[in-house]
Amino acid sequence: MLSVESAMGIFQNPTVISILAFIFILGAAVTLHEFGHFIVAKLLKIRVETFSFGFGPRLHGHKFGTTDYRISLIPLGGYVKLGGDESNSPIEGEGASDIPAKERFDLRPRWQRILVALAGPAMNIVLALSIPFVGAMIYGVQISPPPVVREVQNGGAAQAAGLQPGDRIVVFDGNENPKWRTIADDALLSPGQPIPVEVERNGQRIKLTIKPTPHTEEGETAGFLDFLPDYGAVPIVVRAVEPNTPAAEAGLQVEDRIVAVNGESVKSAEQVTQLIREHKGQPITLRVERKGSPVDITATPRRLSDGKERLGFSPDEEIPYQRVGIAGALSTAVDTNFEYVRVTGKAMGQLFAGKRSVRNTISGPIGIYRVASTSAIRLGWAGVFAMLGFLSLNLGVFNLLPIPVLDGGAIFLLLIEGLLATVGMKISAIVRDRVQQVGFVMVILLMVFVITNDLLKQASIWRGGNSNPPATASPTPATTPTK
Known about the structure:
By secondary structure, the protein is an alpha+beta fold. Among the domains are: 149-229, PDZ domain (Pdz3 Domain, Roll); 236-318, PDZ domain (Pdz3 Domain, Roll), CATH 2.30.42.10. It has helices spanning 4-11, 14-43, 89-92, 110-139, 157-161, 180-188, 246-250, 269-277, 326-352, 365-398, 407-421, 429-462; strands spanning 48-64, 67-82, 141-142, 149-152, 168-172, 175-176, 195-201, 204-210, 213-217, 220-224, 227-229, 236-241, 257-261, 264-265, 284-290, 293-299, 302-303, 309-310, 313-317, 321-322.
């Protein structure tokens, strides 16, 4: 029998944390998507034959009333099987033949069928908006500092571009008066690519071009600007300490305030990361303040379970929060999700323009697991919920694409049917079946592609493809088909 201490130790294991985070993030996103279809169908009194997490053979479940709630073999999405709807039978299986006409989905008005199809993606988008909204209501919103350069790293991209301490960035890649988050996201997406920058220096505007320095971590290549932002006089604190790491063994604690690294005063979390990166394999002394008293923590970075050499903690600026009302929280939620969409759209645009590789743009289940693991271990619950919001939004938008088998494909066919009905025409059952078959093949090929892409990334990581890993990986659109 396990003791309480042993049980707690299991749940502090990085591998266990990673697996639980992956299950929670993917499970929540998929289940809420399917719940959207489910609840609208139930409200409209449409028979729901199956509510499945995953595809393929049934592993486990229970039947309540006329609905079989199940877990299926392939956990790469899910589906709700509606009575009388055989459009996705290659995936969902054949339905019952004795369903009363009043409960059949295929006999309902077109507007009801569109509502049911829309409900899944809508639930994902609502979830993505709810996470930052609730966070803003509970904790407030961080005060965003102006985009002023504090320090330029010697030999880095910023120095090569001509940036100087005190420069205020007024235009970055065409964005007027950008926020720090926009600047960082655009740099992450453009490793080695020239980005036009306009800075204000001594009352004058100066145009520059910067090429973010490429760094590769976990198979993803991201760009970094090699300068430190001016957050003002804010504390640098420890947000998370991973168990069984040099930082934990040396006694570093969450909420310790980092004052200096190897005797050098620090002004930002990125500066802490850079100083540790520059002293790989060497003892590093962190001067921290703990409950008002100075404490020296000495530890040596080593290769951890993720294959990277580090101390195993997450520094962060303790930027002040300001309280906001409902309107401010809603604005924050919209802005956060707009940035997700903007970054994802820009990444996809770079892909089709040939400026970005497929391997570095699209991720599947292995990629989701890798990012979920990093988010949970380094950032705790904040990272888990941020990843859940990002994945949920991607899932909702992806399922609105007009691809047969997906919700967007079903909506598209229903709209086409409506247009044809105005001139007395309709889509034949044979044509509908052929369209669904094509969609089914497309989704299978897409799943095979993203999994293969994930495996190639993982093989590159195992071969030691990382070099100078950054603190943050680039955002990567995730592909998880669901219905």
